[in-house]
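User: Predict the complex with fe (iii) ion.
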Amino acid sequence: MAKEKTLEDLFLDTLKDIYYAEKRILKALPKMAKGAASPKLKKGFEKHLAQTEGQVERLEQVFEIIGQPARGKKCEAIEGILAEGEEIMKSYKGTPALDAGLISAAQAVEHYEITRYGTLRRWAETLGKRNAVTLLERTLREESETDELLSQIAEQANRSAEAGQPAGRAGSGRRGKSTAALSGAEGAANGR
Ligand code: FE
Ligand code: FE
Ligand code: FE
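Assistant: Here is the predicted structure with fe (iii) ion placed in the model:
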């Protein structure tokens, strides 16, 4: 008979999964920040990059709590989600829909992290690892806040994409291309 596997095994495997994912995200975020058209979105990605560095450290602390070496295990899900993001970046580069697409890709990442950290937190509770619960919860909150922030930025990005205007230029009320065309959006982008 196969060796009995327990919740402790699941916890460790999932911890390795998200550890791998966070390290991949660390590499992806600078590219996303560089790719973003609007300064707001750029800043959002940069802020989350700094947060992600802290999240990797927290995971290392959780490994320590359970007495295991911090080691990642390939997460196919994050590879796929990030590959989709790169695809969007490539095919929407220079278009008004770029930021809306980038945000959708970033939110897919955040939602993956949220499901992982939600599960890990619950399992840590069940296993009685109080300190791990605190650490995982802190990260879970950051991922949720990032998701919220992205939803806020998306409102403007979606309007720009819909109106066919460069990021951060669509009006909040009326839609349509006429205003952008009349004000010479491209020229203005290089102005003061
Ligand atoms: Fe994260
Ligand atoms: Fe995974
Ligand atoms: Fe995140």
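Confidence is low (pLDDT under 50) at residues 171-192.
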